[in-house]
Amino acid sequence: MIQDICKDEAFLAQRAEVATPDDLQIAADLLETLEHHKEGCVGMAANMIGCNKRIIAFDNQGEYMVMFNPEIVKKSGPYDAQEGCLSLAGIRPVRRWQSIKVRWQNEKFQERLKTFTGWTAQIIQHEIDHCEGVLI
Q: Does residue 135 register a pLDDT over 90?
């Protein structure tokens, strides 16, 4: 179900709780909401739809991908960027990494580990910031 976008900065500033298999519907709603906003959005975290769970969804080179409990375990190649967000007004400066290694769980809660680079890495970093309660 398409959900409203949360703009409550106090809620968005909270660290997300660990996602469990009981949260699969939140992931489905997150994907549907991201698809609905595809013209102006390439990634979302669950707190953007009012669910304080560690779940992100994003455009991975043309195909949507969901990560449960993602964490960056390695990063390299720092650079400065500017990003916008559906939940926050304006464009803001951020420090990102060109290459990141991420550990997460898939929809079957199997652990995965993969290195992402470039634009996809930037999107993932933005969404993981949401999980950490970081307001860019």
A: no
* Greatest C-alpha distance within the chain: 38
| Secondary structure of 65-130 as H, E, C letters | EEEEEEEEEEEEEEEEEEEEECCEEEEEEEEEEEEEEEEEECCCCCEEEEEEEHHHHHHHHHHHHH
**Burial class, 84, CB count within 10 angstroms (exposed 0-12 / middle 13-18 / buried 19+):** middle
pTM: 0.96
Question: What positions carry a catalytic annotation?
Answer: 127
Residues in a beta bridge with 111: 105
pLDDT at 76: 98
Interval 74-85: pLDDT, tens: 999 999 999 999
Nearest to 115 by CA among 63, 62, 77, 64: 77
